[in-house]
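User: We ran a pulldown and think these components assemble together. Before we commit to crystallization trials, I'd like a predicted model of the whole complex to look at. Sequences follow.
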Amino acid sequence: MTDEPLLRGSALSKFYGSRVGCENVSFDLWPGEVLAVVGESGSGKTTLLNCLSTRLLPSSGTASYRMRDGQFRELYRMSEAERRFLMRTDWGFVHQNPADGLRMTVSAGANVGERLMAVGDRHYGKIRATAVDWLSRVEIDEDRIDDEPRAFSGGMRQRLQIARNLVTGPRLVFMDEPTGGLDVSVQARLLDLLRGLVTDLGLAAIVVTHDLAVARLLSQRMMVMKDGHVVESGLTDRVLDDPRAPYTQLLVSSILQV
Amino acid sequence: MPTPLVVSDVAKSFTMHLRDGVTLPVVAGVSFSIRAGECAVLGGPSGAGKSSILKMLYGNYAVDEGQIIVQHADGLIDLATASPRTVLAVRRQTIGYVSQFLRTVPRVSALDVVAEPLVERGEDREGARAKARALLARLNLPEKLWALPPATFSGGEQQRVNIARGFITHHPVLLLDEPTASLDARNRDVVIALIAEKKAAGVALLGIFHDHDVREAVADRIIDVTTFAAGKRAA
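Assistant: Here's a predicted model for the assembly, 493 residues in total across the polymer chains.
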């Protein structure tokens, strides 16, 4: 096991005019580690995620990523084409709304196969077989492979989006509220599935969520954000069981007990 | 043989920011060590800080002052200041913990809950499951429950799943937070036997046991937590 991080964020800030998106955020993420970023709407967690995934460029700060050859590259100095290549191969991005991450008018099989073709697979039979395999791993019946995601339920769409992202064997996956907008029973199934996949594949992931239970279940480490700043970070169970910052104490004490 | 766990001058308090920042001292001046092959028991009334001490030793509570030195991977680590990543490695390899209550995950079977710590340490899933089956059988958990998620189990059944999960690995240090609280006499005896086996294998154990008979049966030594009362020093 290597002792170098996969992704390092250093003093990342993003301003929208005079308004703070996120300010001075630094962290390291190691292979196989899931980092949860929690906070309420407007806390800057999605801005941070978008900066890290290079969907947004930060106003200042750096982020470097350890490529498959072991070399660190600064993300914001890469060319647009290099970043796109990283996005298509080594990274995944799971959106809260599956419609943002799927092509709704092509079949489920094609949604999964498309990512494979982007990394150079051309053999139709092999692509289809891999697609079938991935659909079953996310618990979608094989006989739905030719259906469009428009005909899928919300939970199925989200599982399809996950399959589409993981089929290329990424090392890092960004997730923006992956269980937001799903019924609790569907959420539990998705969380369990994600948890298993992350463990089996040794993925590193950054999960943005406002749901502390989701953070507890999926992540080993967490950062709590408020008004664009990280107010507390550490082991997930430590932050949740012994919260130190006033804002974290408020968040934890606001959880409804069932 | 080096001492696997040495605690010196540890202090802990909670600052309640939602209650105008009032500070609740929990313990101060906590100092003891646990040798390999012994079972020490934290003694004292409820609220004395026994669970808090265990939680600090597991990295689950932050430590305000002092050191918690653990023998880990051929070196010494201070858990009080270790990075989250180091704490996770210590939990994987060195310090095991049986909590009072099982935190269940939806849809994961009791068998896999028990096997998981071994799988995390790199054992193959089938081998880990075989060991999990043996342990659950020994703890008299009915076989028909093994494939079910423990969320709907009774308190005693969940407790046994939790114990099996904690005892399945060979961590050199094992922390036990009232593992026998909701067990009947037969299963209490199984836990006493399991603890004796760990001691014989050279594991350093630290536990909380309210049950007098269990304490008598397992304890080599009682550490009186009331001598660490935070008020004594802070006041």
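The longest strand of chain A covers residues 19-29. That may be worth checking against your pulldown data before setting up trials.

User: Thanks, that helps.
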